Amino acid sequence: MAGFLQQIVTGLGAGAIYASLALALVLIYQFTGIVNFAQGELAMFSTYIAWTLVAAGVSFWLALVITLVVSFAGGMLIERIVIRPVEGAPELTIVIVTVGLFIFVNAAAGWIWTFLIKDFPNPFPGGALELGAVTVNFSTLGVLGVVGLVMGLLYLLFQHTKIGLGMRAVATNPASARLVGIRVGWTLALGWGLAATVGAVSGVLVAPLLFLEPNMMAGVLIYAFAAATLGGFDSPVGAVIGGLIVGVAETLAGAYVGFIGSDLKIGVPLLIILAVLLLRPQGLFGRAAVERA
Amino acid sequence: MTESTKTDEKTSAPPATVKTPAATRWRWGALAVLLVLAVYAPFQLAPFYVFQLTMVLVYAVALLGLNLLVGHAGQISLGHGAFFAIGAYTAAILMERAALPYPLTLPVAAAVAFLIGLGLGVPAMRLRGLYLALVTLAIAIFLVPLLKRFEELTGGSMGLTLAKPQPPAWTGLAEDQWLYFIALIVAVGTFLLVASLLRSRVGRALHAVRDNEIAAEVMGVRLSFYKTLAFAWSAMLAGVAGSVYTWVIGFVSPDSFTVNLSINLLAGIVVGGLGSLSGPVLGGLFVMFVPSISQDINDAAPGVIFGLLIIAVMYVAPTGLAGLAGRLIKKIPRKKE
Fold this sequence. Notes:
B: mainly alpha, two-stranded antiparallel sheet
């Protein structure tokens, strides 16, 4: 039993990371209806910026703040430069453009920082909390805490600020939002900036566990997709809960299903995506899309 | 979200085909010249270049499948390399474990890839193309550990090494030339097959699905049927290409079929030209030569070039190189009748 609980705790820790990247995906999807295939790569790029700063002697937390600011600006810039020209174009075009961005960012990181793996400092202390028979690493607690904090801040932003109100208006109906004087273009860019910032957090959280290299986020991206699909692509809360469920499911499957083991765990998100698409396509918390011809 | 259904100039718009008799004649003439050159080339080039051209043909067959799906049916796949790998491994396992003569492995590989494509296409196609992209990406990433797991069948991470097909004595050809001609025959065959498919009722149905799903449905096109079928066909063509790949390389290993292969193939067809028949050939040249040339600059250079080109092509020339060529031909002034 203790072993089982231990696996669940480990799964929650992994799930929190998937949740944070899923949150970034959902943020962009909500505003623009775009699923950003480059989200993981942008997070990886941000993590490299943090690594460069830390390697240059900047303290970890200051480096994090700088990274988040740079990521925010970078996300806005990408929306303005790369995504803007294809705004309103069919899904196929936009998906291809974000895939192009994926390839470009991945290769650019490889060019700048080479493909050798780098050690990334863990911001949390190494010890663990003993709760009866279960040990909870401080780093797991830290990850969960950070993701909870990000969730809380986003909630405050969306529900209790004027900017957030404008963003919700744009997400609901861009044309009406424009008519009441909201600058839709800039709001969309703001959405991308926010998503890049949230993604950067997930990159920084994942790097100490996976080692930093340009392909670090490819697997995480699949888990995040599964989390967003499970929770519903239009529900931030769903993305977080979906992420936690995916993390736990993956850890339990790896530990208790002999056939899956640690190498085939990447099949778990694939199964989850397929199952959700077949049984409840809008996800647990999403709204079913209704289309008008 | 509702905006995503509206079609736009800047997307998978049909290629700028020219339908005048003069242009058609011009086209057949060019095709004939190209074919003569293709037959002549292996007798003039060094074996290494013949090998490279063979690989261009292999990629072109795979891209033909991807083009059917992305360019003609408007669905997106980020896992085309996985079906390529399924075809390659089917051929390799049959040759290695069952000692099947190599020409027989091609239809089996095609059938296996087709069936797996059909099975995976059914759940993914019930929804919009976006989810297909997700599922196919997940498949492409999942396939590598899966191939490593079934070691007794696939040879694990070490892969399988096979004897390459030898040319029959009566041909008097060298090994590389023989392989080239096999690839050429497969490529021409599949191109003719796809070309006639697209001219038929099926082709028109696929184009209708791509251009406006709702209108297509109203006209009596069964969306899920045609989308799933397009996915299965594209998987089948990837499987065919994969089996020829196995003959040409004589070696398969999981690391040859990572998600990068799928992404390179998508890049190839986008740059080569979505929705045109010459797109796959241009894309094949692109996938083969751009990495090998640019790798000298930096390991990451192919990726940087691919990424930038994909984005640039989607902005300025959504029909790719083939579409650009088509537009240029259109601009040539013709005699007034």
